[in-house]
Amino acid sequence: LRAHKMTHSGEKPFECEYCHAKFKYSDSLRKHIRSHTGEKPYECHFCKKKFKQKTSLTGHIRNHIGEKPFECEICKTKFSVKNALKVHQKTHTDGKLYECEICKVKLISKAILKTHTRIHSGVKPFECEICKFKFNYKSDLNSHIRIHTGDKPFDCEFCKAKFPSSSSLNDHQRIHTGEKPFECQFCEAKFSNRSNFIAHKRIHSAEKPFECDVCKVKFKTKPYLKSHMRIHSGEKLFECKLCESKFYVKSALTDHIQTHNGEKSFECELCDIKFSNQSNLLEHKTFCTEEKLFECVFCKAKFKFKSALIGHIRIHTEEKPFECNFCKVKFRHQSTLLTHKRIHTGEKPFECKLCGTKFGDRSNLLEHK
Known about the structure:
Belongs to the krueppel C2H2-type zinc-finger protein family. With 369 residues, the chain is an alpha+beta fold. Helix content is 42%, strand content 14%.
C-alpha cells in the first residue's frame, strides 16, 4: 500500500549514491546501480554470457531456444523480445520516421538514425585495444575481439560447432534446419542468411555500391572489391605449394593446381575436349558453338564475353570510368588507360626481337614488324 501511494505523491525516497538519481522503489535503485558497478548477476547457461537485468537474460535465452512469443497482429512476424516488436510495429503505422539527410533512407527511431549516419561520416568510435581497428558499432567490436581471444561462446545444438557471435551461429544452424527466411521478391529465390540475400538482390537492381578508390570500378559485393584491390596493391595471398606461383584470388589458385595434377574434369559436350578448369571450358564453348550469350539492352548487339558487352554499353551511356592520374583524361576501358599512361611514364614493354626497338603499344610493334 505504501509503495502504491508513492505513485500518487511522486515521492522517490531511494537515491543512487553514485549519481544521486532518485527512484520510487528499492528494486529499481538496485537495478540502476548495476549500470555504475558493471555487475552482471544473471548468466546464460547456454553460452555463459552475463546480463545486468533478468529480463535481458530471458530475452537472450529465447535466441538459443528459438522461442518468439511476441507476434505482430498485422503481419504475424514474431519476435523474441517485446522491444523488437514495438520497433517493428512502427513500420506499419504512420508514426514519425527519421530521414537521413544524405541518402534519404527513413528510419523508425532517432537512435537508429544516429547510428546509421556513421556509415556516411566515417566515424568509427569503437576501437580494438589490441590491433587498433575501428568499428561503427559496439557489437561489431565485441565480435571482432573474439578473433584475438579465440573465444567462441555460441555452441550449435546440432553439431557442437562453436561460433564467436550469435548471428554467425544462427546462420550456421539454418544448414541443419534447412530454414531459408530471406526470399527474393523478384525471382522467389530463398537464402539462409541476410548477407547472401542482399548480394543476390543486386543482380536484379544492377546496384554496385562498392567502388574502387583507384580506378572507380564498382562491384556488387565487398568481397569482390577486396579481391579487385589486390590488383592495384600487387598483393597475391594465394600461393601454390608445388611451384610457388601466387594469385590474387583463391579460385585462380584452384584452377592452377589442376594443371599440376593433370586432372581435366571439365568436358565440352559438343566436341569432347577436356579442360582442367571451368573458366577455360566456358571460354572454349563460345568458340565451339559461336554462340553469343550477352546482348546489349540498347541496340541488341550480341557478344561472346560479358566483358565485351560491358565495354560496348559504355558507348551508349558515354561512361568513362578509367581516369588518368597524370592528365585526368578518361577512358572507357582499363586497357586503353594503361596504354595511354605509358605516354607519361615512358614505359615501352613491347620490344622488336629483330632490331631491339621498343614500343609503348602492342599495335605499334605489330605495325613495325
